[in-house]
Each structure stands twice: as structure tokens, then as C-alpha cells.
Amino acid sequence: MSASPLPKFSFDTEFAADGGVASQTPRPKRAYLPDEVEQIRREARAEGENAGLTSVAAAQAQALSEIAAACQQALPKLAEVAHTHRLGSAALALACGRAIADAALAQFPEAPVRAALEALAREIEAQPRLVVSAEPALAQALGAVLQETADAIGFEGAIQLRPEPEFNAHAFTLDFGDGSAAFDPAAAAARVALALEAALAAEGLHAEPLIPGIESQE
């Protein structure tokens, strides 16, 4: 069994062949002047402050990195919440619009027919006959209105009113030979709802950000 080699012993002072000192390890200084003590204190304090600032800067950088990562993870969820909110807002707006339109039609059922005749005045003025088909409740309210509106727009042809039980509430058609026009509130509301749904679906999660300058990411 071989023994481990002993550590090499080093001398603080080495002498040359002529007896002079060849090399000498500086001995630690054991006494300092007040100015030296103050200088050492200032250097130690500066080193401590630099180390502390470096540590704080590193901690700040790490915290900012973690905050940025958390924000990146939260933005897609925020976009989903915003999209859901837009869908709900659109549905509420449609419901409110439908309620207002229904109330207006209930109060003034003949108004859409009057407006349609006035808009088509030039198309029907030379026609010999105008056939108005409407759901029964509306047809019952249109007798005097049709003749009054025809006189106002200068229509001198015959007016025929036909109740149509299969029509939706407040729906009607105008047939004047060379053309026709139709109005169905329920069908119109359904078309608006479909168009809005299609627009929201196409927009998806790529709408304008809630916070300007912040883009959502999937």
C-alpha cells in the first residue's frame, strides 16, 4: 500500500547562494493608519453597494420577465373574454332592437305599408292595379290607409287587398304588375342576426384590442 505524498512545504523567505534574500512573501499588515482604515472602509462599502445594486437589478429583470410571461399567457384568455362579451352585447342589442321594432309596429302597423307606397310612387303611378297582400290583422287596418296614400302619391289604379293567414305578423307584399316589394319583420330580423353572427365569427379573436397598443395572441 503506497502512502499519499506529503504536501509540499513552502517558505515565506528564500535565500540566494550568497546569503541574500531571493524572494519573500509579504506578510499581512497588522496595523493601519486612520487614513488607510477610512480608505478600506470606503472601498468595502462601495463593493457592497455595487454588489447590492447588481443583485437588485437582476431581481428586477427576473420579475419583469415573469410579469411579461404572465401577461403573454393572460392575453389569449382576455381576448376570449372580450369576444364572449361582444357576442353577448350583440345579442342584447338585437333583442332591444327587436323589442323596439315590435312596439313601433304594434303602435303604427300601417306605417311600413305607407312608407313602401311612398317610396315606390314613381314605379306604380302608371300601373292599372295594385295588389296588396298582408297578414289578416294588418289587412284589416289597411283599408283607409291604402286609399289615402294612393291619393297622396297620385295613383289612380285599382287597389286590391288580400288577407294572407300564412304571413308573419305585420308582413305584406305589394304587387304592381311590373314589379313587387315585400316586407317581413321576422325574416328581416333573422337576416340581420345571421349577418351579425357571420361578422362576429369572421372577426373571431382578432378584433381591436381592449387596450390600445396591446395585440392579442392565440
How are the secondary structure elements laid out?
Layout: E1 13-15, E2 21-24, H1 34-107, H2 111-119, H3 121-124, E3 129-134, H4 136-141, H5 143-153, E4 158-163, E5 172-175, E6 180-183, H6 185-203
Parallel strand pairs: 3-4
Antiparallel strand pairs: 1-2, 3-5, 5-6
What would your notes on this structure say?
The structure is a single chain. The chain is an alpha+beta fold and 218 residues long. Helix content is 56%, strand content 12%. The chain has helices at 34-107, 111-119, 121-124, 136-141, 143-153, 185-203; strands at 13-15, 21-24, 129-134, 158-163, 172-175, 180-183. The strands form two sheets. A four-stranded mixed β-sheet has the order 4-3-5-6. A hairpin with a 5-residue loop joins strand 1 (13-15) and strand 2 (21-24). It is rod-shaped, with a radius of gyration of 46 Å. It starts with 12 loop residues before the first strand and ends in a 15-residue tail after the last helix.
